[in-house]
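Field reference: sequence -> structure
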Amino acid sequence: MQEKDCIKNSKKQRHNTIVRIISEKAVETQGQLTKLLIAEGFDVTQATVSRDIKELRLIKIADRGDKYRYALPGKETDMDIRSRYTAVLTHAVITIQNASNLVVVKTIPGSAQGCAMAIETLGFDKVVGVIAGDDTVFIAMNSEKDAADFCKTLMNVIN
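Structure field:
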């Protein structure tokens, strides 16, 4: 049993080191992470690092330019996602108007699906449902007041 405990400790230390490394450096590949762990004194292969990445549930997020780096899922990533969806809305929405308990969003052609996804993912309050065509998104709200409030909120998001 002691051998298993040593392996667990080693794995835990390795996982802690991986978390530290990816928070300090922009690590783009498993190979790069493997080399950094070896430099830290760990005896690892790329296969081990691959398993560690899965166990830690690391994701790749956009870094500067066209580069991607490993990161832990969490608040930083959530903020990245929120800013991307906000950018989708900012660039694609042409008009927003309410009609009774519905909000009608006109977008540039081909962008309605992306805008609908952004609206759903951003998790606005009181949205009952979202339907998108090619350049129009219908958002069902609980009431006319909720629709009017949502129009104002969405305008604030895109401006």
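Note: The longest strand covers residues 93-99.
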